[in-house]
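Researcher: Good morning. I'm working through a list of sequences from a screen, and I'd like to move beyond sequence-only analysis. For each chain I'm collecting a predicted structure so we can compare shapes side by side. This is the next one on the list. No need for commentary yet; just the structure.
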Amino acid sequence: MRIIFGFFTALLLTGTFSLPARADDAVVPPAVAPETPPLATTRQARLDQLFSDLRRERNERAAERIAGSILAEWSQSGSASIDLMMQWSQKAIEGQKFDVALDFLDQVVTLRPTYAEGWNRRATVHFMMKNYGKSMADVDHTLRLEPRHFGALAGLAQIMALTGHKQSALEAWQKVLAIYPMMRSAQDQVAALSEELAGEGI
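Model: Good morning. Structure tokens for this chain:
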């Protein structure tokens, strides 16, 4: 599972100065730069636009790039210490040290319970450990914080399929496609599960 970390810094300096054309002209005060919107508002606006673009995009590669930008937005916790623990957890996952990864992620969700990606990462580790009940609980937390989290929905779909709940798996994959229509794996799973369920008379 590839995690993309992005850090963006913007600096905007604006200033205008206007002199009257004649002595009897009224003095025009300098234009006041608008206040910079809070980070959360700006981030939410970016995400809303990206999700709108993702729903409309019909080129698979272009859609993947948009999805990557969404993942980059999700990865930003707003805390250097949380970001560091997320990096450590990823290294532990790559080394298959799942217990170590869980230790870091337990701290992440405790310190920043509103950070959806922390819950999603922990759900992924539980899934890899076959702790499906715990994984589903973390998926639920993720989706409550970010209902459009196609990664969490895909994880839920896989758990449903592995535990024999094909209809629920199909419904989860269909939710993924409503958000990310060009996700190839979701398209394939919807087609396969629809065929299986039709063959079973459902």
